[in-house]
Task: inverse folding
């Protein structure tokens, strides 16, 4: 397990250092160096804003090699309900399941089958920890990481429970063990709608190791299912495996209001990371009081708006809502997993405390931090405050901070460079060299771009 | 180090912005998150008091080694009976202010709870000065 694994990667071939991602990053984790966007691993919360903003499609989500599934005799695919939402209404869930089996999985498990148990565990936790209101859901890994780095005083409000993904993985592993399958023969693969869930599996917060063996990107699986269906069109529909029952609450869980509508009291549902930051600021200041539960999701319209979503988020929501309706009309089935509710609730508690790791602090020592802050103020007086990004930092303040932390030079500022040139403190060649450190070699040759 | 912020009376939509700025500063100084929380909650209450009751005011925050001293002074009606104003639930806020979710009479008691020392000076029809001190280690 890496300390801060991030699935978001920058392709050096495609990146032009255009600064769009740097400006969009809600934690200021990106700088342009040598003509490329570089991501600070400690500050990145895996929200995927950079990927969504990149006009060059230079930021991508690293995934496990699909063929790794064949290292295991039993290959389980954990499917969040948003995957089904990727497809138009005429494609049945049975068809999608059949394609997953055809591509090599031996068992299809819906991630959200454990939602009702998780919701119960959350209810029990909230009832016994009333003094920790407002409760914050740990559903979205990007939000948990955001709280760690920017709102450490809110950590105690986070409900320290595992998520449906973990519980379903634990359940299916136990199921297979009971069927006599050795542990090492079972491979559990999660289909992810975003980068944050990958980070949560590769470097989990609050637990030592994830029960999931690998992650596959949702857009990749979407393409593979589509391709399979296109080929099979000529040979008739594949056999339909049985699909388990999911309650309306479980189907809607990953959508906005999915959690908030499941609990008593004053519950808020907030999606999109800037909205999340705004509400966390207000909760931290006690500007908003009397709230019992907040559902916070980093993506616009929650997981339907995940970075790896192939379909329009509103169509995803429409499809899931129609499944909710269909499920509401069915008689509630007592499914297999509910017999293990007590065991799973016990397993749900995060064994390790969520740790604060502030990215705001200028120094561990407050006195030193204060000196640094004074320096930042002095630097700010000579910077232009236009936040042009041409220095490779997202704002003048960020450059000032980088300078004080020894991570950048004041001469990276193009305004300062002009002054230095005018006062003959640097030569034109030196000025080009400074700019090349930020924007890359040969960027300033007249015959190349 | 000292920081100054202007507070506009009656502008509820911006109430809390000065406290939020101070919060950002304290986080950068690696002040214990629990201390930050207390200071900011107290500052926010004081800021809202100025917005709700006064024409205008100023927040001055001075940071020294292990101590945060905030002075919020306003030009406004003043507090005739400070002891009464310190009682939970006592409020002179207008119905308009209460409709906006402010003015529940918890302001001053909440400030007292969230700082280590509180001094209030007030002159009726002139203004109020609230000085709060919070100590921290680190």
Result:
């Amino acid at each position: 397990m890496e300390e801060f694994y991030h699935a978001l990667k920058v392709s050096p071939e495609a990146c032009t250092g255009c600064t769009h991602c740097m400006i969009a990053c809600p934690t200021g984790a990106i700088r342009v160096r040598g003509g490329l966007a570089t991501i600070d691993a400690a500050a990145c919360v895996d929200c995927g804003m950079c990927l969504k903003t990149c006009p060059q499609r230079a930021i991508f989500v690293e995934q496990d090699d699909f063929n790794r599934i064949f290292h295991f005799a039993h290959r389980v695919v954990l499917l969040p309900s948003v995957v089904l939402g990727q497809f138009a209404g005429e494609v049945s869930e049975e068809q999608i399941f059949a394609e997953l089996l055809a591509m090599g999985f031996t068992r299809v498990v819906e991630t959200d089958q454990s939602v009702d148990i998780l919701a119960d565990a959350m209810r029990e936790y909230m009832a016994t920890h009333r003094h920790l209101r407002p409760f914050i859901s740990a559903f979205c890994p990007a939000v948990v990481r955001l709280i760690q780095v920017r709102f450490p005083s809110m950590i105690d409000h986070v409900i320290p429970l595992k998520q449906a993904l973990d519980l379903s993985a634990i359940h299916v592993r136990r199921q297979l063990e009971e069927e006599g399958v050795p542990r090492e023969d079972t491979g559990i693969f999660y289909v992810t709608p975003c980068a944050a869930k990958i980070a949560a599996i590769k470097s989990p917060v609050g637990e030592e190791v994830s029960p999931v063996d690998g992650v596959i990107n949702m857009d990749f699986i979407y393409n593979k299912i589509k391709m399979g269906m296109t080929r099979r069109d000529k040979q008739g529909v594949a056999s339909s495996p049985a699909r388990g029952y999911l309650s309306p609450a479980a189907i809607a869980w990953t959508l906005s209001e999915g959690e908030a509508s499941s609990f008593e009291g004053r519950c808020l549902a907030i999606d999109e990371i800037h909205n999340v930051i705004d509400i966390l600021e207000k909760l931290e200041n006690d500007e908003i009081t009397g709230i019992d539960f907040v559902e916070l999701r980093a993506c616009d319209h929650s997981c339907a708006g995940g970075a790896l979503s192939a379909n329009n988020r509103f169509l995803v929501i429409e499809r899931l809502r129609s499944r909710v309706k269909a499920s509401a009309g069915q008689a509630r089935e007592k499914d297999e997993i509910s017999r293990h509710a007590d065991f799973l609730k016990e397993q749900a508690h995060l064994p390790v405390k969520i740790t604060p790791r502030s990215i705001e602090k200028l120094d561990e020592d407050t006195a030193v931090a204060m000196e640094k802050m004074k320096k930042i103020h002095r630097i700010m007086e000579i910077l232009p405050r236009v936040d042009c990004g041409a220095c490779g930092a997202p704002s003048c303040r960020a450059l000032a901070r980088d300078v004080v932390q020894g991570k950048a030079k004041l001469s990276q500022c193009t305004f300062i460079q002009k002054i230095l040139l005018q006062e003959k403190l640097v030569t034109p060649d030196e000025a080009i060299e400074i700019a090349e450190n930020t924007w890359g070699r040969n960027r300033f040759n007249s015959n190349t771009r | 180090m000292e920081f100054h912020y202007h507070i506009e009376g009656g502008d509820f939509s911006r109430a809390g912005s000065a406290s939020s700025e101070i919060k950002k500063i304290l986080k950068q100084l690696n002040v214990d998150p629990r201390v930050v929380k207390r200071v900011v909650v107290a500052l926010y209450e004081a800021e809202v008091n100025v917005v709700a009751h006064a024409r205008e005011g100023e927040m001055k925050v001075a940071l020294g080694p292990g101590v945060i001293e905030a002075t919020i002074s306003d030009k406004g009606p003043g507090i005739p009976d400070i002891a009464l104003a310190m009682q939970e639930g006592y409020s002179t806020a207008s119905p308009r202010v209460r409709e906006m979710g402010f003015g529940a009479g918890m302001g001053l008691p909440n400030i007292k709870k969230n700082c280590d020392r509180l001094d209030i000076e007030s002159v009726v029809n002139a203004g109020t000065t609230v000085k709060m001190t919070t100590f921290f280690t680190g």
Notes: The CA atoms of residues 63 and 80 of chain B lie 31 Å apart. Chain B touches chain A through 23 residues (CB under 8 Å). Chain B has five helices and five strands.
